[in-house]
Design goal:
The complex is a heterodimer of chains A (356) and B (216).
Chain A lengths: L12 H9 L9 E2 L14 H4 L3 H15 L3 E3 L6 H5 L3 E3 L7 E4 L22 H15 L4 E7 L1 H9 L1 H10 L1 H24 L4 E4 L10 H23 L4 E3 L8 H6 L4 E3 L6 H8 L4 E6 L1 H6 L3 H15 L6 E5 L9 H14 L8
Parallel strand pairs in A: 1-10, 2-5, 5-6, 6-7, 7-8, 8-9, 9-10
Antiparallel strand pairs in A: 3-4
Chain B lengths: L2 H13 L3 H13 L4 H21 L5 H18 L13 E6 L7 H12 L3 E4 L6 H10 L4 E5 L7 H12 L7 E5 L5 H7 L3 E2 L3 H11 L5
Parallel strand pairs in B: 1-2, 1-3, 3-4, 4-5
Helix pairs in contact in B: 1-2, 1-3, 2-4, 3-4, 5-9, 6-7
Chain lengths: 356, 216
Amino acid sequence: MKNIIIPKDEMTPLERMTAFASGDAIDRVPCCPFTGESFANYFGYGLDAYNHSTDIITDTIIRTYELLRPDNCSIGPGLHGLPEAMGCELQFFKNDIPRVHKTAIQDYKDIDKLRPIDPYKDGRLNLYLESLKIVQNKLGKEVSIGNTIGGPFTTAALLFGTEPFLKALIKEKEHIHKLLEVSLQSTLNFIDAVIDLGIAPGLADPIASSHLISRKMYREFVLPYTKKCQDRIRERTGSGSVLHICGKTKPIWSDMIETGISGLSLDNQDDIGLLRKQHENDVVVIGNVDPVSIIKYGAKEDIYRGVEECCEKALGSQRGFVLASGCDIPIGTDPENVKHFINAARIYGNMRSNQI
Amino acid sequence: MSKNELFDEIRENLIEMEEDAVIELCKKSLEMKIPAIETINEALIKGMDEVSKLYEEEEYFLPEILMCSDAMNGGLDVVKPHLNKSDMEDPIKVVIGVVEGDTHDIGKNLVKILMEASGMEVHDLGRDVPLDAFVNKAVEVSSDLIVMSTLMSTTMDGMGKVISKLEAKGIRDQFKVFIGGGPISQFYADRIGADVYTNDASDAVREAKKMMGRAS
């Protein structure tokens, strides 16, 4: 590969994101690989320990930032935080994210027993709030701090077990709406706690993927609840937030946008060029380099090419474009590869008006 | 009610996800002395064929398929004990599971449902399956296919390890290895030397039939 000169950044991550948010000129495309806890192992921590210690969370997040200099740092209880705080039993692993060991409810009649979470007392949620506070204090002047939590639909699915939950969507609608309602209240309580720290929470709702449910079901069981989350976020911060749904989402792009989001974070299974074409006036387009084939397993050349293609398709998008991974950076990825990813953003995402 | 009318009703109720009705109608088929094999092939499997089509046409998604599959299995439980041994032809044999470390089994279950619905003999190892279990089970039942699924990028490398284990035993050629799941791609299948990657369950069934030289 020829030696390509990597342009030097002219803004700090925070300056770039702030200018981006207000529509001012920026030096290059904002670049947000979804790392979170991805490098805990790399820094010598087990993920089970990470998930139980504010010190380890903050150390991992700060060192990841110092190593890579991405344009945001995100800390969140993941998809399992809310279900656990509502009664799911989790299992933790050294080299992997937690999983549900026992669902919170096994029967519809138990739905009435569920209570919305207290973000400061239930489960491990406060660990993440404390970590957000610490990282905000230490890095908040340099980089924007973010948070992602599971949407009400995914939370509800984990509370009941995904398969029984999906079946119940057909014949037990009343029960399902009751379950979604209490999941929504939990999500809103956590959203409020995050916003109280001056941080805008994003939502992830993988079970709402178009691989799993129809557009009709999305509109009936997901859209109204996501909208209530976005309404709350907008009411308190002045704008909607980012929504990520894994896998295919093309059939529901307009529905996702209807919830009031400000940014649509696209999985690598869909075409970001098409999203841009259809919705560049509606949302910030975020995505979508393949985190496995390209970022984890690709050579430097592959990563550069992946970023170049993505930028060709989405750079210049009307409401803005954020270069990101199509999903979380896999645990075990060499941080050098993520450095290549961000360097490629400096090259192919150059947005200086006086381009060489 | 004639046999054909009964079969029509079973198919319709299966497609409409009416498990109880399918069970009642299958009981009726026994009262009418209809051979179990006919009810299975002409009513239950044909009904699931329709369901597969609705899935491919993006009319039906997972919730609907899971409900239809419950209805099919409800019917099968009624008629299966009445099958004659000679009714069983030589089906494509499949060993399927979610690799060790991963408990996301919805994708695997969908593939299993559609494979069974097309008459294959599926040995389901479940989820979080130790890698040796794939090899051992495939040898034990003389499987044609080994089908592995995972949703997690942390566990996907287990698939390559299963292939290495087959190679180490000198039995790699005896099986076609199919892989699928969220982080999996053709790139990854080539990388680990799997035979087939498909990104959806009905493609997996089609490829399986093609590989084994069966008409679809």
